Every structure is written in C-alpha cells, then in structure tokens.
Amino acid sequence: METTRTVTVAIIGAGPRGISVLERLAANWAALPEGNRPRTTVHLVEPYEPGPGHVWRTDQSRHFLMNTPALFPTVVPVGEAAAGRAPSLVPVSFDHWRQRMVDSPDSRLSDDDRKELQSLTFADFPSRALYGRYLEWIYSSLTGALGEGFKVVVHRSEAQHVEPLTAGFRVRLSGGGAVVSDAVVLALGHLPAQLNPEQEALRDGAARLGLQYWPPNVPADADWNRLPARKTVLVRGLGLNFFDIITHLTEGRGGNFVSSGLPAGRALDYHPSGREPLVVAASRRGTPYRAKAKLDSYVPRSIQLRYCTPTRASRFAAEGIQPGFDHDLWPLLHRDAVWAYYGTLARTAGLPDAFLPSLQDVLDDADQVWRRRLEELLDGTVAPADRLDLESLASPFRRHRFASEEEYNRAVLDYLEEDAAGSDRGENDPLKMAIGAMNAGRSVIKEIVADGGLTEASWTAELRGWFEPLVEGLASGPPALRIEQLAALARSGIVRFAGPAPRFELDAALGRFTVSSPWVEGGKYDAGVLVEAMMPANRVSQNRSVLLRRLLEDGLVRARTMMSEDGVPEVSPGIDVSKPPYRAIGANGLAQENLYVLGLQLSSVQWGTAIAAEAGASLDAGSRTLRDADDIARAILA
Ligand SMILES: Cc1cc2nc3c(=O)[nH]c(=O)nc-3n(C[C@H](O)[C@H](O)[C@H](O)COP(=O)(O)OP(=O)(O)OC[C@H]3O[C@@H](n4cnc5c(N)ncnc54)[C@H](O)[C@@H]3O)c2cc1C
C-alpha cells in the first residue's frame, strides 16, 4: 500500500552543509521502497544562490583561492564514505567534476571558469569562485534528478524567526513570508559577529577622527578598492584572510609577479603598479601561516601514522577512560611528528643505517623516557640546528628581542624564503613532513574527541588552547605560491612587518592608528587605516544573526557550557546539542524534537567543523559532516 505520509523540512542556509542535507534527504528518500516514500517538500531558505551560498559566490574575484587542493573537497559522499549509505543521485566530488568539465564543459561555465579549468590540476588550489560553480552544479544536477514526490522550494530570503507550533515550526522570512515545516535544519555557517570591546573602541574612535576601521569580514564581502593607494595601511592578522587581502591589493591592482630565475624562496620578483598601499602587518606570533607543501596528495605519501592511529587513540575510550589531550593523545601524535621528521631527514641527508631502527626503539618506549632517549640518540648524529623543535614552531621568535625593525623584517623574510623553499622540497622536506604528520593526525583526533571523547577541561585548555592555533598556523596555511609572493612583496618593501605581540592603538593626539611591538626596538608605524584580517568570531553568544539571537532569546537553543581547567563553567562557542543526529538543546535542557544543527555551530561537540568534507575519507573522520547530514536526513524521514 502507498504511504500517505508527508514530510516538510526547512533547511536554513543552503551553503555546502545545507546542500549536503538536501542531497542526503534525496538519497535516503530514493532508497526507500517506492510505496514507502513520503511526499516530501524541502524549503531551502538562503538569501544567496543555493549551493555556493555566501562564502562560495561565483561572482567573487579569482584572486581568492581555496586553501585546500582540488583533490580534497566534496559535498556528497564518494569512495569509502559512500559505503553503507544511501547512494547519491550525484556522486561527484569537486575533482571528478573538474575532470568532467574539462572533457565536456557545462554551458553555465563562464569564460573565466573555462580558462581556470584548462590549467587546474588535482594538486592545484582552485579559486573559490570555481568551487562555487561546482556547488551550483551539484545543486542543479541534484534537483534535476529528483523523483516524483520530492519537491524543493527555494526562498531567497533570510530566516529571521523560528516559532514552534503544536506540531512543527513556522519559519518567518525577511520580506514577510513564512514557511511551515515538520522539521528545521540550522546550517547557518559563517555568521556576522559582534566586535569585542577593543575592536568597538577602535571603530568608534575611527568614526570620531575620520579614520577607516575595517572590522573582521569574509574577504569577498569587502570593497578593497576603498583602501588608499601609496598610503600606509595597518593590517592585524597574518592568517588566510591576510593573504586574500594582500593579493587583492597587489595583483588585484595591476601589479605583476614575474619569475626571477632563482630557486624557490627567491623565485619571484614583484613589479608594482604604483597603486598599492604600503602594508604594515602584524600578528601575535609575528610570522605568517606556513605554506602548504607541494604534494600530489592531501596527506604526504611518505606519511603513515604509527602511533596516533584510530586503533591506538580509541583504546582509551575502549578501556573506559575519557582521555585528555596533553596526557593521552598528544604523546602519540608527537611521536608521529618526530618519526616523520627524522625519517625524512634520514632519507634525504643520509643518516647511518642504524639510525631509524634505533629511533623506532626510542619512540616505542614509555612516555617518561623517550624524549630523553631521543636527545641521546640525536647527540652525535644530528646537528642541533637540524633538529625538530616543535616549541619554536609555535612561536619562532619567542623571547627574541630585535634591535631594529630592519633586523626583524630581515628575520621574517628569511623565514618566508625558507618556508617557500621547504614547500618546494615537498616530500623531501623534514619539517613539512612533520607538519604533514600532524595534519594527518588531526583527522584521527577529530574522530576521537567528537561527542564527549575528550575531557572538557582538556578540550578548552589544551586542544583548543594551544594545539589548535599551532596546527592551524602550520598546516592550514595558503598554497606555496602565496608565500613566494609574500617574500617578493617583502623584498620590494610593499609589505612590512611590525613585530610579535603587536599593540594596535588609536593615538587621539596624533589622530592616527599606530602599531608597535615590545620585541622590536624603534619600529612604530602610524596610518589612517586599520584592517582586521580575520573572520568574524565563530561564537554563538557573540553572533549578530537575527535568527540565532531570536532562537537564543526564545530558549529554543542555548550555548553549550563547558567545565574549564579550574572547574569553572565557561560558555563555549557552539550550540548545545544532543548526541547525533544533533538536535538543539533548549534553555530548559531538553532536546528539541525536529530542530537540527549542522556545521560550524557544532564547534563544542566536534573539532574542526569549518573545513569541507574530504573526498573519499571515512565518514567518522574527514567526511564527518556528511555523516551528520545523513544522520539528520534519516531521522527526518524515519
Ligand atoms: C573565506 C573562506 C574560505 C574558506 N576556504 C576553505 C577552503 O579552502 N577549504 C575548506 O575546506 N574550507 C574552507 N572554508 C571553510 C568553510 O566553512 C566551509 O568550506 C563551508 O563553507 C562551510 O559550509 P556551511 O554551509 O557550513 O557554511 P557557509 O558556507 O557559511 O554557508 C552557510 C549559509 O547559510 C546562510 N544563512 C545563514 N544564516 C541564514 C539565515 N538566517 N537565513 C537563511 N540563510 C542563512 C548563509 O547565507 C550561507 O550561505 C572557508 C571559509 C571561508 C569563510
């Protein structure tokens, strides 16, 4: 007998995560026996185009590149991740799509898309606009493949209020409409955030003095043409947004990077257009994010984790122990980083044959002794300057005083040139391979710590406290080309660096922003413009989304509270949710039936919620977000 059941779902946010939920709903629906398929209507609420959404708009500048290579991302399960789940109607990762579009280009590809596709390989870093085109294609191919009885209705609006009804919800839209549904999925992604008190003071002071203060932003949202040419511009932050901004202000203003004929690190010269500002940049660490190594895989082919394996790392839980990061997980990953470093050094620098078996013996030893034994092994074999010093990677200029800003800028340039050269060595660079091991370990750790797999104190103080900034700065950096370009800009004097632990201030007497570093003698810069090169904070309690604020006020959702190291409860960045499928927990402490959460707002139960799903990776680790989408879809259709 045919089912008469109907299902109506509102997915709020149709960027990658929202599209994954739609795709999983369609796949699970199609996998049901024909007579059991409920008549299903999915309302997609999204002010931007469904698929690309806000972040991956197809009309953004091609200067904005992804920081993951073409072989990496997907929004649908492919390979290992697809096993045992309802088959996708469009089982196409970004890289499959790239190959398809080269062989038979879609009519909607723009000239710029076609041009980019001509030279893009699986190991290159696509523009965000092109990734947006893939997302757009997935969305339209998916909706084109839907069966009778499964309907998608798009609302190009912002959802502003979710009101619980006796059964289901009413979602109120900007512009006045509303949608009534049985279930709501919050896939809100990157949201605007309130400024912190220091940023507010800078903004207000700038308004009083007629200066320009640029708050944290998605780079494609800002009009960089408003920054003055040939004037000093202060930039806070040396992470991914910094590289976007710099590219826009240089190549984007007609400057050219040309080959110098010299080796990596000094391989480019910059020919200015004369319309660039003079950028003075700084961050707490004092060095930019490191470049990705040049590889033909996501995890280096020479890296095989030996210690931080899923089996070893899950043993704690199997024995009834909730692990701590510093005490239990880091010692495993630390060994892998050491093994990767010296294994590569042994291969490339020709260490004695006995070295690696001895190293393995040392690393297999107990936590208390292996580090001492490692030093003993290295003495006489590896010169101190060639050893791995993880602590100095966290802050390369730690406690180093620079006598002048010239001396500091020289040190940063050396650092950039060496980093670009290391990336160029790829699998043959010991440091990049140690970083590769840490990056590979990230996936394992992501799986282990999810859903209460780590003590709360360790989560806040250790995992997010020191490890996350370290591994982000080392392994989440830009393509090598960007560091090579930055070195060229530093040599040309267009970019200068102010120093570690910088103090950005507004000098009312001078009527200017200033920046200086306590570690650099004499280097104080002033400017009429200060740019925050960072994303708005991903904190539920700090967001400026009308919808999320209303959800919090109405008690339909709440921020998760976690216990700090000192035993004091702290408001964490994410929404409080039940175990998967993630239902929002309301102010009354109860899970809200049929109100689901996916993506960035899960940052208090999962680690690494922003990155795209990794094509072919396990649903428990690299493709975890696809499993979450699948769990939600199945719960809705159940
Ligand atoms: C600039 C930038 C570059 C990045 N680069 C990479 C990269 O190279 N590789 C990688 O793996 N990851 C990258 N990321 C991480 C990124 O988080 C993910 O790739 C992905 O975009 C997350 O998808 P999402 O759907 O959760 O969030 P989003 O992409 O932010 O999509 C959420 C959508 O929800 C919509 N929305 C929000 N509130 C409402 C509302 N009230 N009503 C209706 N719609 C709403 C928004 O308009 C948006 O389209 C990048 C992120 C940013 C911001």
Strand content: 15-25%
What is the averaged pLDDT score? 96
Largest sheet: 6 strands, mixed
Overall radius of gyration = 25 Å
Helix content bin: 25-40%
The largest beta-sheet arranges its strands as 4-2-1-8-22-21
Number of domains as seen in the coordinates: 3
Number of helices: 17
Class based on secondary structure composition and strand pairing: alpha/beta
Fill in the CATH topology of the largest domain. Answer: FAD/NAD(P)-binding domain
Shape: globular
> Which ligands accompany this protein?
flavin-adenine dinucleotide
Distance between the termini: 17 Å
CATH class of the largest domain: Alpha Beta
Q: What is the assigned CATH homologous superfamily of the largest domain?
A: FAD/NAD(P)-binding domain
Keywords:
638 residues, alpha/beta, FAD/NAD(P)-binding domain, 3 domains, 6-stranded mixed sheet, 17 helices, 23 strands, 36% helix, 17% strand, globular, binds flavin-adenine dinucleotide
Task: Tell me what you see in this structure.
Helices cover 36% and strands 17% of the residues. It has 638 residues and is of the alpha/beta class. The chain has 3 domains: 6-62 and 139-192 and 540-637, FAD/NAD(P)-binding domain (3-Layer(bba) Sandwich); 197-289 and 479-532, 3-Layer(bba) Sandwich (FAD/NAD(P)-binding domain), CATH 3.50.50.60; 310-475, no CATH class. The strands form 7 sheets. It has a 6-stranded mixed sheet with strand order 4-2-1-8-22-21, covered by helices on one side. Strands 9-18-10-13-14 form a 5-stranded parallel sheet. Strands 5-6-7 form a 3-stranded antiparallel sheet. Strand 11 (256-259) and strand 12 (268-271) form a beta hairpin. The radius of gyration is 25 Å and the shape is globular. Flavin-adenine dinucleotide binds next to helix 1.
